[in-house]
Structures are given as C-alpha cells and as structure tokens.
C-alpha cells in the first residue's frame, strides 16, 4: 500500500509539468507566428518615438518617388529679401534664358535667334561725338544709348572726334561671309582665332560694337585702346560696356585680344566684372554662387546699389515694385538685378 500511494503522488506532480510544457510551446508558437507577420517597415523606424501612438505609419512613396529622398517643400508665393524687397514667385517661360544683356554667346554657346529683335539705326540716332561707318549699322536701343553717353563723355574730357563705329548687329549670313572671307585671306587658323563662327557671334545680339579710327584727312587706323583712347577702355564700365576679349582671357573665351570690341552688359554688371577681373564666361559662373535662397550679391557703383541673384531654370522671385530687370545667361538660368532704394 505505501508503494501505491507513493506512485500516485508522483503522478500528480508530473501532470502539471506536462501541462505547463504544452502551454509554453503553444505560447512560443503564437509569439513566433505573430513576429513573422510584423510589417517590415515597422523595423525601419529606428530612433523615432512611438510611445504616444500604437500605430506605425508606412512611408509615403509619393513623397520621394521611391528614391528614399524627402521631396523639398513647395516654395512660398511671396517672400521678402534681407534688404526688404517684397517678391513674388514667377514663371518666366523658356525664352527668358535666351534673352537679356548677360547672354554668353561663343563658339561653344550659340545664339538663339528670336522671331523679332528690336534694333535701331545708329546713323539716325547717334550724337555728334563720333562717326559711324555708313547708314546701315544697327544696335539694340540700350546699347546705342550707352554708346552715345560714353562717346559724349570722351569728348567732354578732351578726346578728339576721330572714333568711327564700324560694326554693330550682324545677321548669321553676314557673319558667315566674314568668316569665309577671313579664312580665304588669312587662313582658317587665323579666322578661328579672331572671327566667331556663324550663329556664334556676339554681334548677333545687337549688344556689341567695334571701333576704328577716322581722321579729318580721310585716313584711318585700327583702334587699339591706347593714347587718348585709353580713356574709353578704362572707363567703358561706367557706361555698361566691357572690353569683351582680352589676351589674358583667350584660353577661356577662345578669341584673341580685341581692344576695339565692346560688349554691353549693363550696370552694375560691367562695374562688377571689372572689379573682379572676370570675363563674361567667368562672371556667369561667379553669379551662380548667389541663389535666391542663399546669399545675394550686392554691387555698389556710381549708379547706385544693386541686389542680384541667380536662378537655375525659369521660375524665380521678382520684385513687386521698384526698378529691376531679368536676363538669361543663354545656358541654364536667369539673373535678376534690382536697384536698392537707399
């Protein structure tokens, strides 16, 4: 009898252990199964505080296109610059990149010919301070107005009336004739060094002029910007012009030294180009460092103080009022220049 009771008690202790083992196995199975069904994105939210919510949101694929990058927030419609200029976000259209006074035009960057181009006859609108080759020379109105002021200034400070304007706007056909003529007379290498390819000449813009000398006895000479004419080359930036091609910039521009070739880029940019010792290609790269969201360029010159910013593409902020203008760079964006009221 004692053995029988002993075996019975032993059986009572084993049964609870078996039941506990079964329960533990079932619990482990449920735990592992529930873990296998956990959404994979739940494990990617590391370092975030989810204590306030039992729900975990999946990333919105539409926000980043599946690239893993967060889309930038939309730009506000209205902003104010650090200098207090109220601006509105504006889409200018594709043509904006290819119009204006700061266009780079070279053998590497062809001119985009517009359907219509505003030009004025120099002979009919010049002052008496200089000569013009004939009655068929044309310029953009803004360039002619600046040329008249510059040549009047030259005469006023003691210069002689001997400057002859011999070239302004050119069509593609005229440029092609000049290139072929130079190549025939001087060889292809000479033409490529001194004459732009047809369609790639700054003269297409109407913002360029070439000077020569004409004397009262009927003789003429090349213009080299020396002697009394050095005043023009040293002060042209005060009127919005720059000497476009210099010998020390030939590796960048692709054109040899041409002290007679003046390009209108306007104020204050001509003054800043001279101050920074930059050719136009270098200056356009320089301006790319002054975006609207970043630091703006402030230029102080004799004409006043200006605020400048660059925008890649054609959507940019424009001042709601005041004096400002926009120019494309003929490559990838636009430059906004506005006068700061002092």
Key attributes of the depicted protein:
342 residues; 10 helices; Muramoyl-pentapeptide Carboxypeptidase, domain 2; disordered N terminus; Phosphorylase Kinase, domain 1; 31% helix; globular; six-stranded mixed beta sheet
Strand and helix map with partners:
Elements: H1 2-36, H2 61-64, E1 78-80, E2 86-91, E3 120-121, H3 122-125, E4 131-132, E5 138-139, H4 141-156, E6 163-167, H5 172-186, H6 188-194, E7 208-214, E8 220-222, H7 230-235, E9 241-245, H8 250-253, E10 258-264, H9 269-276, H10 280-287, E11 297-301, E12 304-312, E13 315-319, E14 324-328, E15 333-339
Parallel strand pairs: 4-6
Antiparallel strand pairs: 1-2, 2-13, 3-5, 6-7, 7-8, 7-10, 9-10, 11-12, 12-15, 14-15
Number of domains: 2
**Taking Cα atoms only, what radius of gyration do you get, to the nearest Å?**
36 Å
Low-confidence stretches: 1-22, 28-62
Mean pLDDT: 85
- The CATH topology assignment of the largest domain is Muramoyl-pentapeptide Carboxypeptidase, domain 2
* Estimated helix fraction: 25-40%
**Largest beta-sheet details:** 6 strands, mixed
Derived structural class: alpha+beta
What does this structure look like?
This protein is α+β, with helices and mostly antiparallel strands. The protein folds into two domains: 74-102 and 276-342, Phosphorylase Kinase, domain 1; 111-264, Muramoyl-pentapeptide Carboxypeptidase, domain 2 (2-Layer Sandwich), CATH 3.30.1380. Helix content is 31%, strand content 21%. It has ten helices and 15 strands. The chain has helices at 2-36, 61-64, 122-125, 141-156, 172-186, 188-194, 230-235, 250-253, 269-276, 280-287; strands at 78-80, 86-91, 120-121, 131-132, 138-139, 163-167, 208-214, 220-222, 241-245, 258-264, 297-301, 304-312, 315-319, 324-328, 333-339. The strands form four sheets. Strands 4, 6, 7, 8, 9 and 10 form a six-stranded mixed β-sheet that branches. A four-stranded antiparallel β-sheet has the order 11-12-15-14, with helices on one face. It has a three-stranded antiparallel β-sheet with strand order 1-2-13, with no helix packed on it. β14 (324-328) and β15 form a beta hairpin. The longest helix is centred in the N-terminal third of the chain and has 35 residues, at 2-36. The radius of gyration is 36 Å and the shape is globular. It starts with a helix and ends with a strand. Mean pLDDT is 85; it is low at 1-22 and 28-62.
